[in-house]
Amino acid sequence: MKLNIEINKFNSSVKKLTIQNRDIQKFINEKFNILKQQLKKVNINFKKMGDFAYGTYICNSSTRVINLDLAIISYVGKTKKNYNELIDELLNISKNNDFIKEIHTHKNNSYLNILMSYKNIKVNFRVISIIYKKFNKGYFYIINKNDESFEEIAIELQNDFILANKLSSGLLFSIKRLINYILKKEFNYTYNIDMLILRWFYEYICKSLDNFIQRNYKLENQKLNIVKFLSPQVFRKWIKNNISFLDLVYFIFIKWDSQTTFYFKNNGFINEEMFEDISRWSHNTYSTFNLPKNYISRIRIFDSSNQKDRNFFQNNLSDDNGFSEVVWSNYKNEGHKYLVTPLLKTGIPNFIMFKKWLVSKSNNLYTKLNPDLQSEIKTTKTREAISELNTIANAWLTKYNQMLKYLQPFFDKKYGFFNSFKIDEMVDYIIRSIDKIESDDWEIKNYF
């Protein structure tokens, strides 16, 4: 089944069955636009981030709290405001809007939480401040953490995900929406999901494209118009006509947490300790959240007969931010006419929100610790408490990872789901199967 077969029906079915409360969406967008226009008057850009930007956050009859990420951005040349001044501007504007119920500032102004409500639903706008300015060797989105400047890749990741979704004819947003529907509010940070989808989407596309080009453009008189081919409209059409819908989605899930990749050696995860601040023994929990440290941002094609192309490619080989050394090595060994490479981007998007939600989850898990151990965790029963925390955290991490990969069997040819249903029936079956899952069903129990 190629991607062009009924992909629109798949996307519309997913959207129809996962979005059930359009009134709250209308309310949220209205309030966002009011703040955006007010901030625009003082040369500050108010930008949706992550699922808010994609429209992939879940809003249905069971939703009671909606957490949305945003950024206030100052661009060089328009204003000379620093991070605190950006926050102050947003605070002043927010205080003059009656629809805002509460405003919370967090440690060192790391982010601002704007609280609103619609009927019985609470809406949180969690806003970080970003300055787009010269940093190191170019212009980047920069955030301030503990009076130090760091590159913020969340905006770039967002732009890359939107482009990839366009190339996939909307498939990536549908996958993200389904995963969010499964997760509900299990963990509110989801940029890691974007990174993993992009990592494996582009690896599959890049390998397929490379095979296509080496097969069809190997003779001297066979010329490829690289710029035209990689334009979103043309590249999207090629993907629709040449990529298997089932194989692509199955590949994304089967490779989901894999440490190995065809193109890059340094592809993997950063291990973030779940109970970092509890005690000096926290490292003994062995309970870590695996956070992707990079993603593939897009695909590039180079003409090996062009000296400038070859030099640019070779000068930007990297396992952190750059092109694949594997592709370069294959070119030197086999002399390919065209070099097809993914472009790797390294960094942690919106790390401020990641730490906020990781601490929130660790605090929640901590409440499940035996009360006797809670009272003695820093005195006589540290090791016993850490051992129990390890069990609690690993149970949750197992549950979370199951949720992320729950969709895999539905796209596995060995199970035959897609041969048994029409596309819209298949999506309905997936949604109904998710709705039937009880919280305890995710737990892995030992019976000895």
| Number of E-type strands | 12
Strand content: 15-25%
What is the makeup of the main sheet?
7 strands, mixed
How many domains make up the 3D coordinates? Answer: 2
Shape: globular
Can you count the helices? 17
Helix content range: 40-55%
What is the radius of gyration?
Answer: 24 Å
Give the structural class.
Answer: alpha+beta
Please mark out the parts with pLDDT under 50 across 5 or more consecutive residues, or reply none: none
N- and C-termini, Cα separation: 45 Å
Give helix and strand order, one letter per element, not per position. Answer: HHEHEHEEEEEHHHHHHEEEHEHEHHHHH
Average predicted confidence as pLDDT? 90
Walk me through the structure.
- The protein is of the alpha+beta class and 448 residues long.
- The chain folds into two domains: 19-152, Beta Polymerase, domain 2, CATH 3.30.460; 171-434, no CATH class.
- It has helices spanning 7-18, 22-40, 51-54, 83-95, 154-167, 171-183, 191-216, 226-229, 232-242, 245-254, 307-315, 325-334, 351-366, 371-376, 382-404, 417-420, 423-435; strands at residues 45-48, 65-75, 102-105, 112-118, 121-135, 138-145, 148-151, 269-273, 288-292, 294-303, 322-323, 338-346.
- Strands 1, 2, 3, 4, 5, 6 and 7 form a seven-stranded mixed beta sheet that branches.
- Helix 1 (7-18) runs parallel beside helix 17 and helix 7 packs across helix 10.
- The protein is globular and about 75 Å long.
- The model has no long low-confidence stretch (mean pLDDT 90).
